[in-house]
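Interim report to the steering committee. The following record documents the input for HicB family protein (80 residues).
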Amino acid sequence: MANYALRVPESLFAYARKVADEENVSMNQFFVTAIAEKVAALKTETYFGERRARGDLADLDAWLDASPDNPPEPGDELPE
């Protein structure tokens, strides 16, 4: 495990301490979780960007054209 000295503005640190106390976790656990959530969000954004770049609208149109033209199943209708 690595150590990193982190400089945090007093106001943000005070709020982080309050939230950590409310969640009954240590400040360390709070910061680690916050970093993990941010990393996951960035990785998700990258993943969908890569998927979008591989997409082909012509292929989508062909797939939709090949799909059966059935009415939606009960509960799957579009809201009015």
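Residues 28-66 form one domain. The committee is asked to note this result when reviewing the revised timeline.
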